[in-house]
Amino acid sequence: MRVAIINTLYEAIVDHVYGGDPTLARRAYADQLAAIYAVGAAHADFQVTNLRALGHEVTELFVNVEALQRTWAREAGLRISPPRDSAVGQIDRVRRRALRDARRWLGLAPKTRDHGWELEVPREQIRAFKPDVIVNCSLNTFPGWFLRELKESRAFLVGQCSYSIPWDTIDLGPYDLLVSADPAYIERFRQRSKRADYLPHAFETTILDRLGPAPATPEIGVCFVGSLTNEHLDRLGLLERIAARVPMTCWVRGGEIVPEGSPLKATLRPPVWGYDMYRVLRNSRVVLNRHVDFALGVAANIRLYETTGVGTLLLTDHASNLGELFEGGRECAVYRDADECVRLIEHYLRHDDERRTVAAAGQARTLRQHTFRQRMERLMRLVEGAA
């Protein structure tokens, strides 16, 4: 099959990639895409390489990376609106908004071609590739009418989602299949009369080759890697309580929400991405995991697999389905509150042999059952069964 993957990147990751090489935005599309993949952030090229290994033709579009998308358009001979920071681009944006508002006032459908590069380029990329399957990993990016337009070639549309979406307003109509790492999402999709199935996150085994040998003695005691936003207030409170009692280091996105005077403030480091993040995880004795607030007691995030995959002890919050993924106490450590979390941290820092045994068992479980190859095999079985 021909599979097109639609994806987005955090702005901070884009800044990291392009800020490290001022010439990158002027280079070829293939060079820019390779530079994005080389960082190893998000899913990197893990979905692409594993689908190709299964015999599929695959392309991945990072549709919010403006330099990358404009380069594709230039190489394809596609004329698009000017960059938004130019005077012409600002005028063009005002003109498009006025036209859109006028059509809405008149009760007319939106004009599908009166949009900027954010829609123009992916539309032409999909038309040029002619996919049998489109996997949209960013349900919040495109409106329903645009997705219907992408499906004009009768491509099978999959939505992949385990993040916050506007349930009251999002248009799920265009999707033929929705997959999620969060079992609660599966139920909600099915309540909307959509075909939906379970697709957990995963670990890419080639990461171990890229990282090289693990240090004999981890340099970091306890670490947390992740985000702090208004969707992570329970996480923030937990980290503050733990930081007041045990030494730890936190590499976070959104650290500015930590109040002055908080014991967490001194633990904060700038966020790390991709292979740099995997090195932090691997160089730690214990990695603390706390799910996002809306997870509601369900184990679903990708840190479960990233941590165990690199062979570090995972200390994660209790969840109703965790036993289906890892055996608590044997393949990971599990806490129910801040007090238990601190006790477990102190225990495993004092008992290195036990920590290594649990970490090794967790890694073995991930490499046996939670790899990207297995997930991509499952995804394509789901697509073939639903098509």
Characterization of this structure:
It is built from 15 helices and 12 strands. The radius of gyration is 22 Å and the shape is globular. Mean pLDDT is 91; it is low at 86-95 and 101-114. The chain has helices at 11-19, 29-39, 46-53, 66-76, 87-105, 117-129, 144-150, 183-191, 206-211, 233-243, 274-282, 303-309, 338-350, 352-369, 372-386; strands spanning 2-7, 57-62, 133-136, 156-160, 177-180, 196-198, 220-227, 249-253, 268-269, 284-289, 313-317, 333-335. The protein has 2 domains: 2-80 and 116-202 and 373-386, 3-Layer(aba) Sandwich (Rossmann fold), CATH 3.40.50; 206-370, Rossmann fold (3-Layer(aba) Sandwich). With 387 residues, it is of the alpha/beta class.
In a few lines, what is going on in this structure?
By secondary structure, the protein is of the alpha/beta class. Helix content is about 45%, strand content about 15%. It starts with a strand and ends with a helix.
Question: Secondary-structure map with pairings?
Answer:
Elements lengths: L1 E6 L3 H9 L9 H11 L6 H8 L3 E6 L3 H11 L10 H19 L11 H13 L3 E4 L7 H7 L5 E5 L16 E4 L2 H9 L4 E3 L7 H6 L8 E8 L5 H11 L5 E5 L14 E2 L4 H9 L1 E6 L13 H7 L3 E5 L15 E3 L2 H13 L1 H18 L2 H15 L1
Parallel strand pairs: 1-2, 1-3, 3-4, 4-5, 5-6, 7-8, 7-10, 8-9, 10-11, 11-12
Helix pairs in contact: 3-15, 4-6, 10-13, 12-14
